[in-house]
Amino acid sequence: MSRTPALAFAFRSVWQGLARGARGFVSLFLRSLQVRVVLLTMVLTAVALFGVGSYMTQVIARGLFQSKLDSLSSQTNGYTGQLESLAADADLDEALGVQLRSMYSRSPTPLRAIILVPRDPAGAGEPIVVTDKRADTPEVAELPEEFLRTVADSPTGQQAYRSLSFTGDGSAPGVVVAQPVVVPGAGQFELYLVADLEEEQSILDFVTRAVGVAGVVLVVLVGAVGLLVSRLVVTPIRTGSEVARQIADGDLDRRMPVAGRDEISHLAESFNDMADTLQDQITRMERLSVLQRQFVSDVSHELRTPLTTIHIASDMLYESRDDFDETTRRSAELLRSQVDRFEALLGDLLEISRYDAGAAELVPHPHDLGEIVAGVVETVSVVADQAGTRIRVHAPATPVMAEADRVRVTRILRNLVVNAVEHGESRPIDVYLASNAEAAAVSVRDHGVGMSREAVEHVFDRFWRADPSRKRTLGGSGLGLAIALEDAHLHGGWLQAWGEPGEGSCFRLTIPRRHGQAISSSPLPLPPADAKRGQALVAGPTSSDGSVRIQTGSIPIVVESGPESADASADGAPRERTGHTGGDAEGSAPPGGADAVRPGAVRGDGGADDAD
């Protein structure tokens, strides 16, 4: 009873081992060009040798059989002549027996038996048989009926033959030759000569073994040659791959070794020339980038002192504007506003220079993102009222907590809300908050002019605007979204954008709930759940939710292409939190609850949206 489970376990273990071995071999076959070349060379060589060997053995077998058959045929003709030349004798049966035994003993070809069978059994005696007494030698009656009918229908002087097998010697091959003969004074007979092909079979077996051994040796030699040849080709390829990987990792001084004057050497030289060119270009770009960042930083810092003086002078003029005439008063107000705008631009440049220099620092503390959103909405309320835009905040009843830098998150959200007001065409703006186990997210959805494909691809570029001629009521330096993206990266999070012409835009900020924690999905959908089904483009930072990294402008973003994300699950859908500008809030359910991000589909064309 206990042996069956043990055998089953042993069989399962052996099967699992074989399966692992097969998977390892397949993996090695797919990963190694050298293994594929050697293995395919050996297999094809073995197939070719098998075909050639089979053909050769068949040709040799036919030749040996035909040679044996010709010898027996000639011998049969001689024996029939001897029998036909016998003189009539009173004791003919004794004479025939003596003659057959004499022919058997003097036969140049080893015979199993000589049999003389009368054609008319009623008119003659019994068949005369001379044999070597082997048990497996067949009698005439044991031969196939078809062969016996052929011999019986054959005229005198015509031969018939048949191959057969002697089962007693391990199915040894043999052959039988028959010919009608007329014996004087005795009538018509059928002469049968039975011979084996043991000698011919031994020759054929020797040839087969020799071909097999030679084939195995040749396959091994061809495999060794294939290994050597493939090694000559694969080794430089592996070296080039390793050098290319090291160059990609930043070791720009690595080069391929060059030896000889063959094609591989020319390839190595071309690769090294390409690496030299790339290193030169990268060095020049790095030097130019350093100079550019240093220039921006130096100019920004140098402008601080004169700007402070100009700001003080403009403040004095602004405070005394009531003593001026209308034109001078208007100039003082314009000077004050432009100085403020210049100061904001200078602050953005300094912030960008800090990011470029790697000097930006994060000060994370636990915060309720709902409170930060409420503060941003309150700050932007005056501008939203002037634009006739209502801001609706949709948030869960419980706080959305995350470890974040309050100043930087506030700056991100203020920039997103201000852009939504600027481009929302006085239509309502929806701000959604949600969280899951690893991330917290805020998305700002407007229903204005939307963004074209080009706008979505370049929305995070520095100083880029989709429509420079568009009237701007809130100013802006053109660096807002670039700084916001850097702030999101500093948190280890994502800032992603979606837009469709005429359908509005949606920006989604996703940050980890704990500082330093990796995030793989966002609790809010993008494209938003209320977007029309179809094609869309989503841009943002590198993420692990199916994004593909690209480089546009000076800020790395990604483009996610694929089917539009499915509607968010209704479970855990956030409820609307009162937070609007002007009038009472209109309670409206959000277009979707928390859901993992799915890649957006390929882009749409049409109108454009500006973004700072």
Automatic annotation (TrEMBL):
It catalyses: ATP + protein L-histidine = ADP + protein N-phospho-L-histidine. InterPro entries: HAMP_dom (IPR003660), HATPase_C_sf (IPR036890), HATPase_dom (IPR003594), His_kinase_dom (IPR005467), HisK_dim/P_dom (IPR003661), HisK_dim/P_sf (IPR036097), MtrAB_MtrB (IPR047669), Sensor_HK_Regulatory (IPR050736). It is found in: Cell membrane. Its main location: membrane. Keywords: Kinase, Membrane, Phosphoprotein, Transferase, Transmembrane, Transmembrane helix, Two-component regulatory system. It comes from the Bacteria. Its EC number is 2.7.13.3. The chain crosses the membrane at residues 37-56, 210-229. One of its GO terms (molecular function) is kinase activity. Residues 541-554 have a biased composition (Polar residues). SMART domains: HAMP (SM00304), HATPase_c (SM00387), HisKA (SM00388). Residues 518-612 are annotated as: Disordered. Residues 298-515 form the Histidine kinase domain. Residues 231-283 form the HAMP domain. This is Sensor histidine kinase MtrB. It comes from Brevibacterium salitolerans.
